[in-house]
Amino acid sequence: MKKLLFTSALLLQITLGFSQDYKFIDKNLHAMSQEEMIDHQVTFSADTPMYDVKGNTIDPSQINDLMVSGNFFPIIYGDKNFKAQAIVFRKATKKEKEQMQNAMQANDPNANFVAGQMAKDFTAYDINENKITLKNLKGKIVVMNFWFPECKPCIEEMPALNKLVEKYNKKEVVFLSVTFDKKEKIKKFLSNRSFDYTHITDNEPILSDYKVSAFPTHILIDKNGEIIMRKVGNFVKELDIKIDLLLNK
Hints:
By secondary structure, the chain is α/β, with parallel strands linked by helices. The chain has 9 helices and 11 strands. The chain has 2 domains: about 10-105, no CATH class; about 125-245, 3-Layer(aba) Sandwich (Glutaredoxin).
């Protein structure tokens, strides 16, 4: 599984609008159509180069803001094997803005969640090599946060998440963060920023098992192992309320 960005699923729902040749894009690449992207299950990662129409590099942390604004349209360039090699963001037309708005509404990641599904068991190791097995946490409330360092919304909510950890640190609540990034990268990130969860790194299998492709994703599991909450985005207040309710159940 590749490191999917927040908007990857959304891009497949948008019909490719007009495109043009950009001098800074390799001539061996082509602007992929919606059909090509679907047929070849095209995905992209935080490492895929992104540009504006002038060839200026766009930081991966900006992509969510660009898409959510609805003012910019992505053109995905692929190679002969239909692998995404570059993305160019240009100003969206009125029709494209409407398409993106409709696609975002149709693909609301929080729309179809139904509480009560049993959480899938997993075994992993945190950055201090401590073994974590979900079934061994039965009887405790488990709060999971899926994130990666280039995710701007993930970073913005960390102070509030740290307050949750402080609030419930003497309760039967376990806070786990899960990312596809390597342990060394996360340790470097944590050397100058506080994120007080227990960190599971380099673990794409858990993301796959829990069908996480949008960030941040919060999953709340009760003492019986049932998933009570699954939310994409900043829902720290709701998370706080539900933890409190489960503790006093």
